[in-house]
Amino acid sequence: MTETVTFCRNIFIPVTNICRNKCGYCTFRRDPDDPEAQLMKIEDILPVLEDGKKAGCTEVLFTFGEYAEEIPLYKEWLEDLGYSSTVDYICELCRIAIDKGLLPHTNAGILNYTELEKLKPFNASMGLMLETTAELVAHVDSPGKTPSRRIKTIRYAGELQIPFTTGILIGIGETLDDRINSLLAIAELHEEYGHIQEVIIQNFTPKENTSMADVPSPTEEEMIQAILIAREILPDDVAIQVAPNLIDPYVLIQCGANDLGGISPTTIDWINPESEWPSVEELKMMVHEVTLKERLPIYPQYIKKKWYDEKISDLINNLADDEGYRKT
């Protein structure tokens, strides 16, 4: 069992919930005519950034639906804000976050090489869940969940030396072999490019008003098995992350998990809004005798390698201690 488990203090900002995908388990996505559909404006985002900074956060997680520009009404909303593409808008939001003293981590679905290259200077790290290499019923109406397309984005991130987060989702219809193949694909990408800083092993949780509302969550035994397999397959320098608001992490830490991801003192988990974040004090209780250590959204090894742009170098140096963790 690991002696130290890490976490990051963050702000979760769902910039838009318009998405071209229609996954069978998702309650985040909205159609443009839904009263809860949104494209957040800068004036709405600024107070969230300020509250997070006051609360001691170092990361701002910008989350988007995927390629919302394919939806005409969203395109109109974006143009009304003065932007021709979502990526241009993300870059501006990242600039603002950096000015506020926060390190951006963007997760905007699949992106091409040019889009990732444009975002890299403004992000400490980026992410995209692989979820699975299998073709599943849950993804039948989700063109962005084609495994080869997601792998291509992760590969582009490696070519650009972007510290990257990915992961697999357990319990959405995949088999044990699918889980193994997904982890092998991630390991292969990391062995080629060295850019995967963490792999999330996330348990599916059923949600009302979805086509998978009656599908059971994976058992604790399944999650233990997944962590053990992941630790066997993934290189030692890749962290294994579990979500402490979705599952009790301690038994999974005993099996090889060593990161608890981002927790927010000021914002909810917009993907799993029914599951509250634990506080830092509650995290300490969850991990029992294991040492809890705060990190930045960019892991220490990538700080040492200087896998970041000069636009955020001063901020990283101000926030990181000599080992590359959060300065206390």
Name the shape in a single word.
globular
* Assigned CATH class: Alpha Beta
> Could you name the CATH topology?
TIM Barrel
Determine the N-to-C terminus distance. 26 Å
The level of helicity is 25-40%
The number of strands is 9
Provide the number of structural domains. Answer: 1
In short:
The chain has about 325 residues and is α/β, with parallel strands linked by helices. It has eleven helices and nine strands.
Written description of the protein model:
The structure is a single chain. By secondary structure, the chain is an alpha/beta fold. It has one domain (4-319): TIM Barrel (Alpha-Beta Barrel). The chain has eleven helices and nine strands. Strands 1, 2, 3, 4, 5, 6, 7, 8 and 9 form a nine-stranded parallel sheet that branches. Helix 6 (176-193) links the parallel strand 5 and strand 6. Helix 5 (147-159) packs parallel to helix 6 (176-193) and helix 6 (176-193) runs parallel beside helix 7. The chain starts with a strand and ends in a 9-residue tail after the last helix. The mean pLDDT is 97.
Key features of this structure:
9 strands; alpha/beta; TIM Barrel; 328 residues
Helix and strand topology:
Elements: E1 4-16, H1 42-54, E2 59-64, H2 72-80, H3 86-99, E3 103-107, H4 113-119, E4 125-127, H5 147-159, E5 164-170, H6 176-193, E6 196-203, H7 220-233, E7 239-241, H8 250-254, E8 259-263, H9 280-286, E9 291-294, H10 300-304, H11 310-319
Parallel strand pairs: 1-2, 1-8, 1-9, 2-3, 3-4, 4-5, 5-6, 6-7
Helix pairs in contact: 5-6, 6-7
